[in-house]
Amino acid sequence: MEDTLAPVLFKIKSYRAMASSSYLLLQDDPIDAAFDLRKILLEVAEVEKEFKSVYIELAENCQSFMCDMIQLCSSNSDLSVILNKDSENDSTTMALLRRGMSHKTKEFVAHPFIQRHLKEVFYGSAPGNGRMFIHHPHLVKLGLALTIPIQFVLLLFYVLTGFCKTSKIKPDSTLSKMESFLKAPVVKFYMHTLSYILFLAALMMATFGVTEVHDSSNDEFRNGKMTAVQIVIFIYIVAYVWIEMKQLYKYGHSLYFNNVYNKIDTAMVVFYFATAACKLSAIYRIDLAQHYLKDHINETLPESIVYFKEKNRFYWSADDPEVVADGLFAIANVLSFSRLSYILPSFESLGPLLNSLGSMIWDVIEFLALFIVVFIAFAVGLNNLYAFYRNVETPDGKDVNKAFIGIPGTLKTLFWSCFSMSAYNSYEIDVNHKLVEYVGFLLFGLFHVMIVILLINMLIAMMSGTFEVIKNSADVEWKFARTRLWLNYIGPGETVPIPFNIIPSTKWFIRIMVNLVRKCCKQADHIEDSEAAVKLSADQEMVQDANKKYHSVISKLRKRYIKSIERSTQ
User: Fold this and answer.
1) Cβ atoms < 10 Å from Cβ of 445
2) pTM: predicted TM-score of the whole model, two decimal places
3) What backbone torsions phi and psi does residue 231 show, to the nearest 5 degrees?
4) Are 382 and 408 contacting, i.e. CB atoms less than 8 angstroms apart?
5) d(C-alpha 473, C-alpha 296), whole Å
6) Listed residue (348, 356, 362) closest to 485, CA to CA
7) How far apart are CA 494 and CA 189, in angstroms?
8) Exposed/middle/buried for 411, CB within 10 Å: 0-12, 13-18, 19+?
9) Do residues 94 and 100 lie in contact, with contact meaning Cβ atoms separated by under 8 Å?
10) Which of 143, 216, 238, 560 has the fewest Cβ atoms within 10 angstroms?
11) Could you report the per-residue pLDDT of 334-385, keeping only the tens digit for each?
12) How many angstroms separate the CA atoms of 227 and 431, rounded?
């Protein structure tokens, strides 16, 4: 018989040797090698379930090695070089940190050195090197709130003029400082958050009917116009689509949909556009009905014209465009207000709660697998028990049983009985068939024992365990969630919040004009090729310089790590 255990043990020993600090230090890039090995170990752990704990332990060793290497950084410049690997002289890309986020290395991301550097980058582009933001955050938040009109004027001026750092604008000029202020990650965060809150305010105005349109000239027709608030909401949604398309193009579909909030954004946009389509369809048909009535006075009106003339909703059909639009709009509103939870990780007390909620949702999904099996089992049994009495009536014309009539009625009765919203005597029938009642009583009672007493309490225990796990590592979970939030605003792009991002800027027009001139010019191809060659050469030089700095810092960290091991063994 072939020995299958020996190869597996040899594989574990090989991975154990590769996960040791001695082997990782021999690599050209120890931190990058630790990332790759950790990813491989986690993938192997999902395949070989028998030794999953061993592989997870080795993966954690790789993460501990990465944290130890970061711990040996002696200056902020060394840490910046490590975190901004392959960034082409850009100190805000945080490439290594973004990789840690994608690999979910929470201990690495939450390292104190990394979090301090991230905080300096997030606030550092602000005036005064961000000291006021760091030491007096509440005062600065109040200042930003009081200067909202000025900030929107600056944004509009930035969009229309398209000022940027050129040879004619000095780095210490007022325009350059204004641009640096608007591009500061903390300012972008507050401006995007404020813009979204204004969008929610517009939704509330539309929901409570603050601005209703009343057309006195057409009192006999239903309302066929959009309100000003609805137009503002539509503009916001168009701007939202534009910024989401840019993110999808920038990050790719796999990385884009890896973020749960991007999935919420996609669903929200789809529902809002479906709402707008239904609303515009209704407006178009009402307008056609009005024009038809003007052209055919004192004539018999077709049914379609009479229908869209009716203002009373009680006479509208279930698939009326406005009825469908109201349903879609309600779902989109729920998603929109749920989307506001993305700012919770910025608060230390609320961030872990949001993480707990996300983890508990997975507990509910796992619980549903067992719940659905038990639920369907009792539903099928009770439906078969009362199937004969589905269309049977008593001599006085009453239904024998209303609770378990058909699969839909049975499912509805059992579901609401989980929340004590169904009658306790649902199993009774108005026929002298006591055996059926006894069996129904037994099944209905056993259902409550299984669902309410056992499964529901098991779900509570699962969620309590998840909450305790998150609570024990609340600091790490909060910093990891806050890092995900902050990285969205660090780096170039997304300076202008919605809906200002759909306003064509002067830079956009200038870029189009330059491209048109180049295409019309005879030497355009030659000039474009020479400029591309110069740019490529400059980029290659920057990449080479960045690699030299990176490997120089890695070499120093490697020596410090070896010395630390020597001191610990003495």
Assistant:
1) 12
2) 0.77
3) -65, -40
4) no
5) 74
6) 348
7) 10
8) middle
9) no
10) 216
11) 999 988 888 888 888 788 888 888 888 888 888 888 888 988 888 888 888 8
12) 58
